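Reader question, answered in our methods column.
A reader sent in the components of a multi-part assembly and asked whether the whole thing could be modeled at once rather than chain by chain. We filled in our standard form and ran it. Here is what they sent:
COMPLEX SIZE: two components
ENTRIES:
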Amino acid sequence: AQKITQTQPGMFVQEKEAVTLDCTYDTSDPSYGLFWYKQPSSGEMIFLIYQGSYDQQNATEGRYSLNFQKARKSANLVISASQLGDSAMYFCAMRGRSWGKLQFGAGTQVVVTP
Amino acid sequence: DGGITQSPKYLFRKEGQNVTLSCEQNLNHDAMYWYRQDPGQGLRLIYYSQIVNDFQKGDIAEGYSVSREKKESFPLTVTSAQKNPTAFYLCASSIVAGGNTGELFFGEGSRLTVL
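And here is the structure of the entire assembly that came back:
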């Protein structure tokens, strides 16, 4: 069985600062994928970044980077230079052997303050 | 513009009534999914379909039903058997092909409230 854990229910970050959102996972599948999604208050889910279990390098997409530590089973999201528009709920998710079936964590609410 | 359209955006229902949520995609994706989200919680998988005329139960399928008669459409019926149907429902789709990440593309969601 797969499990995704996000231990930070919420956090405040000041504009222009960096923030790290924690995500740990558990799976017995040798091949898996890890995703981060952003959910603003409007409700839509916005894909941010993906990391494959066999990828050698950590994924980066603009201000988003994924700190992937395979031995520790962690996939933390780093948002650099936070902006007010980054205020949202952030979800970590994992895909295992069953293609497309994503297991989601409980999410972390981020509030960016001026 | 390609995307996923869910309707209605807001829906109110009396206890004991069935209600159907619509989900249409024009991304030509093979797979479609329904997730449920409760306040302050993550998403839980209700049903998914990887091909027309076939679908599988997810983690919380009880009280729900789906159909997949067309590739573009994957409606979800919330039946009166669902004990606590008030929630935010998200439809998603994905490509099912080797070499792809399996990223889900989401609709804007439907918020169901049972009165």
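What stands out: DSSP finds no helices and twelve strands in chain A. The first strand of chain A starts at residue 3 and ends at 5.
Send us your own complexes using the same form.
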